[in-house]
Amino acid sequence: MRKPAKLTAIAASFAAVLAVSLVPVSSMAEGAKETIAMGKKVAYDRKLGNCLACHMMDDGVSPGDLGPPLVAMKTRFPDPAKLRAQLEDPMAANANTMMPPFGKHNILTDDQLDAVIEYLYTL
Amino acid sequence: MKKTVVAIAILCVVGLSSTVVAKNAADTTPAQDIETYRSYFTKKFPGVPLQEFSNGVYAIDKVSRDSWEAIEEFPPYEPFIEEGEELWNTPFANGKGYADCFKDGPAQRKNYPHWDAKRKMVVTLPLAINECREANGEKPLKWKVGAIASLLAYMGYESRGQTTNVVIPEGDADALAAYNEGKSQYFSRRGQLNFACASCHMQSSGMHVRTDILSPGLGHTTGWPVYRSKWGNLGTLHRRFGGCNKQVRAKPFKAQSKEYRNLEYFLTHMSNGIEFNGPSARK
């Protein structure tokens, strides 16, 4: 049972490498789209990011107002590390913060954080 | 040793509480705390008279207040008051009843929670009810819903108009320690989501989590028990404490645990001067 699964995984990643190197433009765009879609899902999901509980963003319905609207992210956060730091541990910047430490308390995984950040940069 | 632990726990929340309450739970007196806590809210919501804070979020939000007032015309907690009265009047197997424990009748809210100097602990009204039952050979009731909530509804109704007056006895170090434990719990961040009670009910009171408006912590103890439409029944204060702990993914303490009794002691003290108005209805 295990071996074939592993083989498939290897084959898949090999295929992925191939895909990236052979058909770069369209597939990469597809991959990025998927990541962004996943980021949005994580951000909206009440059990995951639940960013809408506190932030107005995108087309989210009935947002809260504890935090500022998430708009023009590229302009306001030219440095992705800064954005990541805000998600990882907002208390570092503001001891009184009302935002949960998504990274530090493992509320989201690294992959989920990456995806959310990709998504935020589309706003 | 124990002191250090508390001090450290409190230092961790300095950031949050420094504007509100002193760095260390023991640095300010209960009387000073009432003054700071109360004026925090009366300044934040200047149009709201002190007594109004007993109405939770409806004290500060006109829109939800209108539908709440409509609900109060036919209060959903009414049948529970009747059930509670019946329970109050039903004798135990030994022929005695609640009136033998609560000598001056069902209007007991003004007496609870209180510090029991002999037992060195905070005694809440639900605790006193179950101790009365056990002293008379009856099984204790479940803490959070059911018969105890109905009894509390009847006793609360009979106590309407009494004023909160929780005393931290002067010179009793143990009482003060219990109060300070409750206080540091209120200001300590907990759970995976990392919030203190004060994060939501002081700092963010009046703001929206999605469409919910966070109620001011002042007056939080007066209206119990509460009929919540979300629960579909009547629940006790410690049930709500547990719910708020779970919301931030913290492990709740048990109803009537020392932790929640001390928290109730602190929080009720903060509402001294505000009238009891339970039972009440909430969303």
From TrEMBL, chain A:
InterPro entries: Cyt_c-like_dom, Cyt_c-like_dom_sf, Thiosulf_SoxX. Pfam families: Cytochrome_CBB3 (PF13442). Keywords: Heme, Iron, Metal-binding, Signal. Residues 1-29 form the signal peptide. GO terms for molecular function: electron transfer activity; heme binding; metal ion binding. SUPFAM superfamilies: Cytochrome c. It comes from the Bacteria. Residues 34-123 form the Cytochrome c domain. This is Heterodimeric c-type cytochrome complex SoxAX, subunit X. It comes from Solemya velum gill symbiont. The gene is soxX.
TrEMBL record, chain B:
One of its GO terms (molecular function) is heme binding. It comes from the Bacteria. GO terms for biological process: sulfur oxidation. Its cofactor is heme. Heme c 1 binds at residues 101, 132. Its main location: periplasm. The keyword tRNA processing does not apply. Keywords: Electron transport, Heme, Iron, Metal-binding, Periplasm, Signal, Transferase, Transport. The keyword Plastid does not apply. GO terms for cellular component: cytochrome complex; periplasmic space. It catalyses: S-sulfanyl-L-cysteinyl-[SoxY protein] + thiosulfate + 2 Fe(III)-[cytochrome c] = S-(2-sulfodisulfanyl)-L-cysteinyl-[SoxY protein] + 2 Fe(II)-[cytochrome c] + 2 H(+); L-cysteinyl-[SoxY protein] + thiosulfate + 2 Fe(III)-[cytochrome c] = S-sulfosulfanyl-L-cysteinyl-[SoxY protein] + 2 Fe(II)-[cytochrome c] + 2 H(+). Heme c 2 binds at residues 197, 200-201, 244. Binds 2 heme groups per subunit. Substrate binds at residue 240. It is found in: Periplasm. The active site is at residue 244. Coiled coil: none annotated. It is an enzyme of class 2 (transferase). Its EC number is 2.8.5.2. Residues 83-162 form the Cytochrome c domain. Belongs to the SoxA family. Heterodimer of SoxA and SoxX. NCBIfam families: thiosulf_SoxA. This is SoxAX cytochrome complex subunit A. It comes from Solemya velum gill symbiont.
